[in-house]
Design goal:
The chain is α+β, with helices and mostly antiparallel strands. 57% of the residues lie in helices and 17% in strands. The protein has a five-stranded antiparallel beta sheet. A five-stranded mixed beta sheet has the order 7-9-10-12-11, covered by helices on one side. Strands 6-8 form a two-stranded antiparallel ribbon. A hairpin with a 6-residue loop joins strand 4 and strand 5. Helix 2 runs antiparallel to helix 5 and helix 6 runs antiparallel to helix 7.
Length: 486
């Protein structure tokens, strides 16, 4: 058991360390480091390669020039027929010593007539380079490993243009490659210095860059722990300032929602308790009167019924919201005549409007049939029209219009009511939010109606918007697809 726990602890620590490797700071650090070192490495390699190439080519060009000069000299002096000429042999020996290599001269019969090493004179030499020379072509070979090279130059007669022989010059490239090695050593030292500087810069810069994000992370942890008073203020990079501002906006919104939630809990507790208290008072009053008249019983029972209805409405709103909140909530989609649906809703709400002499007007621009969940859509539209009646003025009006295009249908609910303050219009669809708390309590509002409406519309893949002027009225417009998109 102890061994198992130890193994699990080790695995957990390894996972934690591997997770840290994916941190943004490490990625920024590596990006800055590689972004600095890789270009320097490439540039260094290019410079080294360019140096050795130009240095070797320069030496090859020098030796080729010398070889061509000697070849011409041999033609004019007749060296190929008289290889014992001392002046030419001395010059060849000096050149071989100067180039730290070896010079071999071959005549037209592939016979070696001169060798600065004096080893192969009189022998026949057949090689790829010699054969190329007799075809009139020069050849150059370099070997970095041996730090040497060789050049084959044809000896061409000036008049007939025939190849009379060939000169093979081997030479040393040690000096060039030794300079290259010293260059590489110095480059390595410079690279170590640059890498050290880049590591320091990358470390400091990545730490500075990630610091604001750590502040936001810390603030998020505080929010998770229930503290919502720590705003973040980041100055510097535009993107980080945007994150800071968005975080503070989210925090302010969360505070508003939390305050609304607490107020809602308090209000709902009060609303749920008030009808029960009234029912108890009325029932106790009846029980205390042994010979109470029938009229009194009827009056008290009517009041009790009203209180029960009030309690039922609050509970119904809460249950509706819970059902709509479920992500797996079922949609019972069916082809529905929207014109008939609106007429039924208006007929049901007309008695409420008549109590305050509010005119209900329905305007339909065309017949509309759409794929909707009739129950949920009815609930959404009923809430809008009922709110338009509740928060209206006596002798006012509510106009409901229906229109459609090839893709959506539109329901507009306009009223002559008290309107919504501009500052509150961004929050009216938040659950628990109520603009006029006193008025809402009088009308029996719970602050859930518009939240229920918005959820129902969103479940239909639709949209809802509001335009309102305080003390002039409000207009709610909903847009719903004619065909349901699953």
């Amino acid at each position: 058991m102890y061994i198992q726990n130890g193994v699990l602890a080790i695995i957990s620590r390894v996972k934690a360390r591997l997770k840290k490797l994916t941190s943004m700071r490490n990625h920024v650090f590596l990006a800055l480091l590689l972004g600095g070192i890789v270009p320097v490495l490439i540039l260094t390699k290019i410079l080294q390669s360019t140096y050795i190439e130009e240095s070797v080519n320069e030496k090859i060009a020098e030796i080729q020039s010398y070889g061509n000069k000697v070849a011409t000299q041999m033609i004019y002096t007749g060296y190929l027929t008289t290889p014992s000429m001392t002046d030419v042999n001395i010059e060849l020996a000096l050149a071989a010593s100067f180039y730290e290599g070896r010079i071999i001269v071959v005549d037209g019969n592939l016979k070696i007539i001169a060798d600065t090493y004096e080893r192969e004179v009189g022998k026949t030499l057949i090689s790829e380079e010699v054969l190329k020379c007799f075809k009139g072509n020069s050849s150059v070979i370099t070997d970095r490993k041996q730090q040497s090279g060789s050049i084959s130059i044809p000896i061409i007669q000036s008049e007939s243009k025939n190849v009379a022989g060939a000169i093979l010059i081997s030479f040393s490239l040690k000096e060039q490659y030794q300079i290259l090695e010293r260059l590489e050593q110095k480059s390595g030292i410079i690279m170590i210095f640059i890498a050290t500087v880049l590591v320091l810069i990358a470390f400091i810069y990545s730490k500075k860059l990630i610091k604001p994000l750590k502040e936001i992370t810390q603030s998020l942890k505080h929010v998770t722990d229930g503290y919502m008073d720590d705003e973040v203020s980041i100055k510097g990079y535009y993107e980080l300032e945007q994150i800071s501002d968005s975080f503070n906006e989210m925090l302010a919104r969360m505070k508003t929602i939390e305050e609304s939630r607490q107020e809602f809990v308090s209000n709902v507790s009060h609303e749920l308790k008030t009808p029960i208290t009234s029912i108890k008072v009325l029932a106790d009053s009846l029980l205390m009167q042994e010979d109470a008249p029938v009229e009194l019983y009827r009056e008290f029972m009517t009041d009790i019924t009203d209180e029960i209805e009030r309690e039922n409405k609050i509970i119904t709103d809460l249950l509706s919201l819970v059902k709509l909140d479920k992500k797996s909530g079922e949609m019972h989609i069916a082809s529905t005549n929207i014109n008939e649906l609106l007429e039924v809703i208006l007929k049901r709400l007309k008695p409420i409007a008549m109590k305050r002499n509010i005119e209900l007007v329905f305007e339909s621009f065309r017949e509309v049939t759409a794929e909707v969940d009739e129950v949920k859509l009815s609930l959404a539209i009923s809430n809008l029209i009922e709110n338009a009646i509740k928060y209206n003025v006596d002798d006012g009006w509510v106009r409901v219009s229906l229109n459609a295009d090839h893709k959506y249908f539109y329901v507009k609910v306009a009223d002559s009511g008290i309107g919504i303050p501009e500052a509150a219009q961004n929050y009216i669809f938040d659950r628990f939010y109520r603009v006029d708390k006193a008025r809402s309590r009088q009308t029996g509002g719970t602050g859930l109606g518009l939240s229920i409406t918005k959820n129902a519309i969103l479940m239909h893949k639709g949209a809802i918007k509001v335009s309102s002027v305080e003390n002039e009225g409000s207009t709610f417009t909903i847009r719903v697809p004619l065909s349901f998109i699953a």
